[in-house]
Amino acid sequence: MDHFLYKDGVLHAEDVSIPDIARVVGTPFYLYSAATLRRHFEVFDQALSGMDHLVCYAMKANSNLAVIKLLSDMGAGMDVVSGGEYRRAIAAGVPGDRIVFSGVGKTREEMRLALTHGIRQFNLESEPEMRALSQVASELGVEAPVTVRVNPDVDAKTHAKIATGKSENKFGIPIARAREVYAEIAALPGLRAVGIDVHIGSQLTDLAPFRAAFEKVAALTEVLRADGHEIIRLDLGGGLGIPYERSNEVPPLPSDYGQVIRETVGHLGCEVEIEPGRLIAGNAGLMVASVIYLKHGEGRDFLILDAAMNDLVRPSMYDAHHDIVPVIEADVGVDQVPHDIVGPVCETGDTFAKARNLPPLKDGDLVAFRSAGAYGAVMASEYNSRPLIPEVLVDGDHFAVIRRRPTFDEMLARDEIPEWL
Length: 421
Ligand SMILES: *Cc1c(COP(=O)(O)O)cnc(C)c1O
Fold this sequence. Notes:
It contains 12 helices and 21 strands. By secondary structure, it is an alpha/beta fold. It is globular and about 70 Å long. Pyridoxal-5'-phosphate binds at residues 58, 60-61, 79, 102, 199, 202-203, 237-239, 275-279.
């Protein structure tokens, strides 16, 4: 559920009309709904009610400081995967003991940063990383709380680029080797095992792979406890999918996902962490663009927008579907016609959708891409020297630009021509 609805034929974000925002900000831009973000966090928080838990927002989905602060103010923890994300969490006021550090290649510098400013736990992904953290923590004279990310060899049945829980993926330590690794952690200085971590992929639309992975984690918890390790925390990762195509997708509800968690690990008395990213931010955001030209091609019409693959890369990178809707609703009875919806970038890959039915549109009309709040702005680039597009947050009847559009001069000023040229 989101708060992007038509009122009197005009698409609104909560109580603000989108054309009003476009007049102030210019297009294209990302637009987020605070009420939707809050609601999604609450849905997860409630799904785990009755269990000791922390919802750690995976900020790689959308790491704008305003989004982080909004969620942190509600009590969310943060899952970070780089020193840059860690710095964002701190800058937004998230306490260190609510920050979980994930990622396959944490550098010693990143470890030092987090150990110095506070960390809830590191999710270790390999033995070399484990030894490096032991060294860094020992040098600092502290003990690093850790979990090991186990790879349960479960097929998440999602897009190959975002499946992470099969043995051939680069993530985690094979679950069969976990006992050895925990034994080594116990023997190393500067490390304290607090739990187990698992994350099998993103945009999962079926609960069965989660159940299979969590059952393996539950069994491992018993084994490690029998070996004498104190397992007090289970980090079950993120990955719950969202409906990108409203007409024909019904992903599982967070409450049912919570029920799977209860059934698989509820009896262990562990504190449960989950790391949702997409489900919190995805449907809380739109990308709004303008039509530049309508071009009649051979056998098809091209709708050329001022947004492109550099602004929203998901369709060209993951073959992702985004519902694309006119901001001004068509009159009833108007015929929809198929359009190929494209950006101005010089690649055929710069195609958002093919043969998509839309009412007739003309130059200057606004369209909105739904479900663009996660893995949208964060994956944008300046390819074709197109400056990053701004981000706007609506809350009730007011809005604010939470990242402004850089000027062309700012973009050019980052390059330097050496004096010897
Ligand atoms: C990407 C990622 C997440 C978030 O995944 P979503 O599909 O956005 O919920 C959580 N944990 C880890 C370790 C990740 O890499």
